[in-house]
Amino acid sequence: MSATIPSGPAPASDPEATAPRTGTAPECHVVTHVHWDREWYRPFEAFRARLVELASRVCAELDDGRMTSFHLDGQTIVLADVEALRPDLAERLREHARAGRLTLGPWHVLADNQLVSGENLIRNLLTARRWAPGAGTLAGVGYSPDAFGHPADLPRLLRGFGMDTALVWRGAPDGVARFRWRSPDGSEVFAVNQGYHGAEVLWADDSGASTAAERLKAFLATEHARLPEGPWLLMNGGDHLAPTRPGERIREAADGAAATGAALRESTLEEFFGAAREAADARAAHGEPLPVVEGELREPAGYLTFILPGTLSARTYLKQANASAQNLLERWAEPALALHAPGDPILRADLDHAWELLLRNAPHDSLCGCSVDEVHRENAVRYERVHQLGEHVVSRALLAAGLDVRAYGDPAVDHTDLAVLNPHPDSAGGPVEAEILTAPGRHPVAITAPDGTPVPFETETLGIETAFEADLDLLPDSRPALRHRLFLTAPYVSGLGRTVLRVHLGDAPAGDATARTDDRATTIPAPGGGQLSAADDASLTLTRADGTVLPGLGLLTDGGDSGDTYNYDPPLNDTVITPRLVASRSRTSAVRTVLELDAVLDLPVGIAPDRKSRSDRSTAVPVRIEVAQWHGDPLLRWHIWLDNTARDHRLRFHAPTARGADTWTGDGQWSLIERPVRPDLGPLPTERGHEAVCGSAPVQGIGAVGTGTDRTAIIAPGLPEMRALAATETATGADQEIVVTLLRSVGWLSRFDLRSRTTGAGPMLETPEAQCQGPQSFDLALALGEAVATDTGLARRAAAVRTPLRAWQLRPGTTAEPAPGAIRVDGALLAALKPAENGDGLVLRLTNPTPETGEARVHAPADTLLTPVRLDEEPTGQNAVRQGVAQSVWPLAPFTTLTLRIGERP
């Protein structure tokens, strides 16, 4: 979604009182453009048909001079979309781009840059360069005016691609037209706050010249109030609009503009930014430096400037699918290809295509869940296709490394082997889940490490099936087999390396490998001592060894939601409901203890007809909660399943801390960010066209409250809406809570009658599938105290949860040995390991997301060259290091990303 759709005339300032009256006329740069949502209130194909029409009109006007330039919305994906239907028209667009009349990019798609990972954004910019029609044809401006807020790390990303400017809008500080925007690592760009765009100002319609002149006069007055000396920017165009004859429109408006003391000129974004920076430098030389704005841009700022925070939790299943797909490509497919088959052009093409599909789900109307239902059905299918490709790349790369993981041949009788792979740069062990096939009647009885050491495990028999496998070199084959699920604590595996475990088989499962069930248990041991006990509301109470008590861990609360896909809106008379516990049991094995809770949420079936309260009729929503405590692991792992039969509600998960603070910690793309504790929802607006401040914020997977050993952290990749609640708002009575939204069920794309947003944010269309009816499941980890007392510990725990070790059963007859990784790193987190874009070597990206100084110790093959590069993989100019036998040491300043190209040449 881009433009808002107001339900009446906008409030206006007095043009006569605020019009510029100074000597030299400030310039207003008119940049003719379109903002093109690939899918939103229409499905993709319906929008693409119109895109082809627009491309034809734009090319015709650029051909005959009615337009001198056109900005095609900052994304190269439009070339792909047009090319699929009209290759000749796509080539005309490229010709205009090569001639400088048409600007594209710098993005491949205009992503919601808060919900996707940093690596997703990097692949976005890299993909745009592959689609660019020639060198120098991509726009050099960090163009992102319509994202629903902007992440703290965006200046770092732009600078890493050679851009030092940004055009922003939503979330930028109110009334600040120009500023220096700084990331946590110190990267800085010159930022222009576009302000609410004026798509209609020069629009050709039947309103008459006098009305058009009044629109222009009001626009210039507003810009003069923001920045009296100019220059100003008028983006001539809007959502899915085809502006025509901009030069003629400017000439028609010239007299009216001159009367207000302004000069209009047809321009480009690059020309505007050049003039804006020159003016800012001149003001700075006279003692008026630009203000510095640090961190994320997420402040509601006046009329129609919405950041639409409800999109963080609309259609949660999309966010979960995106996090899973990103993790597969970033942490498994790319590293496997880089380490084991870097020169394979077929697998490289598969990986590029997987990224292309994932990027097509990244625009805000897609990933944010705020489109018509048809759009999101296609999104779900794209995520499935990404997984198909990603897993194929992983399995083929493993095959190149000598690990055949295809289920072909006679199922195992005496033993089978499990290859356990570590995706992290340093040594790691811990929980692993895997499935294996054996001959019917054969069961795991022991697992041993390469040195013969027993490995504790739990086994669960899933049943007989007919296993099928076929491949290019394998005839189709179907064989009866018995499937088992294994839970084991893997021994330490070297960084980016593997170990091979032997699974010994017998006629019956080993007695100590099957879980013991207690059908009436209500308690389990707590990590570090003490115990956890189930309460009547299906939350857990922690009783520590020292006798202190912390109730309310994992409390679920459900309230009404009369909002839409853009904004949560509390009913005027809300009812908050918690579960009632029905049954409790525990399962204990050699590796873990699991507390199983059966509960019911007695929820109103929906919102009342007047939308002011929840319905009087109710539905019993079954909830299954499993809390696993792996022996020796400081984390508690929640798996929550429910069958959602209610509508118009919001379900949240609460985690209290014993001692609160004024801030809470959440992670951005490459930085842990301190945010203020705010009310769940600020004062409701009374003016039309405004939005309430919402206490939620986007995270990549981490939310933490408290300090030191009293810290509580939720780690929940794919559940990006988190917030902290102060003591006056907590559901558990604690000093502070961290809260994550699991589910928001709403039935409208946009509505005009909300209390939290006082006009529409899109067309008022029903979206029944946004109610998210049916089975829903959520996975979270909870960490307390010492394990997450430091930011470094918190970041490492989160990385282990986001990307756990994986295990694959090896094909019978496959011989494999444990192997260390060719590349290992101590002292840093891994962001990326991938083939270099230019095909020369590998790219390794490390991060220090904390405010603490550190260093990375890199072990790479002897005699390779380690060259520092930017995010776009261009050399930084720093000296390369020739890797010797020993490690190389790289300092890591706070919040640093370090990118190295590893190869034979600089």
TrEMBL record:
GO terms for molecular function: alpha-mannosidase activity; carbohydrate binding; metal ion binding. Keywords: Glycosidase, Hydrolase, Metal-binding. PANTHER family: ALPHA-MANNOSIDASE 2C1, MANNOSYLGLYCERATE HYDROLASE. Residues 1-25, 510-532 are annotated as: Disordered. Belongs to the glycosyl hydrolase 38 family. InterPro entries: Gal_mutarotase_sf_dom, Glyco_hydro/deAcase_b/a-brl, Glyco_hydro_38_cen, Glyco_hydro_38_cen_sf, Glyco_hydro_38_N, Glyco_hydro_38_N_sf, Glyco_hydro_57/38_cen_sf. Residues 311-383 form the Glycoside hydrolase family 38 central domain. One of its GO terms (biological process) is oligosaccharide catabolic process. Pfam families: Alpha-mann_mid, Glyco_hydro_38N. SUPFAM superfamilies: Families 57/38 glycoside transferase middle domain, Galactose mutarotase-like, Glycoside hydrolase/deacetylase. This is Glycoside hydrolase family 38 central domain-containing protein.
